Amino acid sequence: MADVLRQRIAEHEWAPGDRLPSRAQIAQECGVGENVVRRAQELLISQGVLEGRAGSGTYVAEPRQRVRVVRSSAREQRGGSPFRADMKAVGKQGDWESRTEAKVPAPAEIAARLGIAEGDLCVRTVYEFLADGRPVQLSTSWEPYDLTSGTLVVLPEGGPHAGAGVVNRMAQIGVTISHAVEQPEPRQATAEEASLLGVQKASLVTHIRRTYYSDQGCPVETADIVVPAALCEIVYEIPISR
């Protein structure tokens, strides 16, 4: 059913901004139940093809260019902000808004990822990443407070090394990051995430759990990164040793 609706849009039966007929009408035309039409529309909304407007109906979404987000070890070797470098590569202005809280007790899952005890203090920073002023990615970062306490890099977005990225900041206190581990999985956006990203509630997102490790094998930072499928495509670059 989703393919049928997508094809009708591709054939210009409905143009961007047009309101679709009611689910009952579409169901009758296609010989299916209204529930099938609802699920097909929800799928297309999650993919950015359609958009739902409360109390108004379902509309053909205006086409939006998806931003390419590159996950690569090379992005950490450029100096400065990896996100800004990614956005510059696709001709967009990268920026972000953030909020940092120091001495936040680590929840059980975060503590396990950082190799510390539950309740140990962390520095937590919540990010909203922007491409040309529009939100395209969310992230919540956790760093052990004991690791950076009393240094110039204790606040990721404060001091002389603000916004330099985890790898470059940690280098300032003698911590060499050797690698990162990322665990991506698809899920639906929460109501809060959808509101921040400007997408429909329950839209598809990729949730990436990323952890940076020092050359001593110790985790030094972990983050939950949320990338909306309708706004971004994720590309992994894998270096090949010669």
TrEMBL record:
Region of interest called Disordered, as start-end residue ranges on this chain: 72-102
Keywords recorded for this protein, A-Z: DNA-binding, Transcription, Transcription regulation
Residues of the HTH gntR-type domain: 1-63
InterPro entries per record: Bact_HTH_transcr_reg, Chorismate_lyase_/UTRA_dom_sf, Tscrpt_reg_HTH_GntR, UTRA, WH-like_DNA-bd_sf, WH_DNA-bd_sf
Pfam name, any one: GntR
PROSITE patterns associated with the record: HTH_GNTR
Listed Basic and acidic residues bias regions: 85-102
Protein name in the entry: GntR family transcriptional regulator
Organism for this UniProt entry: Streptomyces wedmorensis
